[in-house]
């Protein structure tokens, strides 16, 4: 029993089968050793999980930073080579990614949301070329109003997927923000997809 410590948790081999006091003490000792061994293993597993969680958190911090720097490097290389379209595309993509990955509140100002959507639409505009145009209009004073983050992106995605991508002519996406009856902030998203002007 004296040999048992935190580095050598082994049950005592002899005496447990006896029915006297020695057997009782040996059985109790072995059960205690088993319980301590379980606790030690549990603590070790918890420590390993904690280390893994810290590593994953570190990865989450590094990856966005690495991505931002890489996109900025691409933008600078394109700019130095006189490739304005690639430089502008990379800049818009970097702004979009930075907003998407930033850890902020669940809400944002309408102005921030519109700027995010402007970057998003600019990236798609590079894809569609002259086939896609967009307009963003915001009445004075509505930009400071708060709304859920990313509330506009799914609707704009819908306009692109089911509207602009379905036509061969020039397509238009229009976003308007204004006050109604001095009580409500209204945001409309419309596109010139198939059929009449579709509004979300």
Automatic annotation (TrEMBL):
Domain of life: Bacteria
InterPro entries noted in UniProt: Bact_2-comp_sensor_kinase, HATPase_C_sf, Sig_transdc_His_kin_internal
Keyword field: ATP-binding, Cell membrane, Kinase, Membrane, Nucleotide-binding, Phosphoprotein, Transferase, Transmembrane, Transmembrane helix, Two-component regulatory system
Predominant subcellular localization, coarse grouping: membrane
Subcellular location(s) of the protein: Cell membrane
Pfam families: His_kinase
Record domain Signal transduction histidine kinase internal region: where: 53-132
Protein's membrane topology: Multi-pass membrane protein
Transmembrane segments: none
GO MF annotation list: ATP binding; phosphorelay sensor kinase activity
PANTHER family registered for this protein in UniProt: SENSOR HISTIDINE KINASE YPDA, SENSOR PROTEIN KINASE HPTS
Protein name: Histidine kinase
């Amino acid at each position: 029993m004296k040999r048992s410590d935190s580095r050598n948790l082994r049950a005592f081999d002899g005496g447990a089968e006896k029915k006297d006091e020695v057997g009782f003490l040996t059985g109790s000792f072995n059960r205690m050793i088993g319980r301590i061994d379980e606790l030690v293993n549990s603590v070790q597993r918890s420590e390993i999980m904690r280390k893994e969680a810290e590593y994953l958190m570190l990865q989450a911090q590094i990856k966005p930073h690495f991505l931002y720097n890489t996109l900025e490097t691409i933008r600078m290389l394109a700019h130095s080579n006189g490739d304005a379209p690639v430089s502008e595309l990379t800049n818009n993509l970097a702004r979009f990614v930075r907003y998407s990955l930033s850890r902020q509140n669940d809400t944002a100002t309408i102005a921030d949301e519109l700027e995010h959507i402007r970057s998003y639409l600019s990236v798609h505009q590079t894809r569609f070329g002259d086939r896609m145009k967009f307009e963003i209009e915001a009445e004075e004073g509505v930009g400071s109003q708060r709304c859920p983050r990313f509330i506009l992106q799914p609707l704009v995605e819908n306009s692109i997927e089911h509207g602009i991508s379905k036509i061969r002519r020039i397509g238009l996406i229009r976003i308007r923000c204004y006050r109604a009856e001095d009580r409500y902030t209204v945001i409309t998203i419309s596109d010139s997809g198939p059929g009449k002007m579709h509004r979300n």
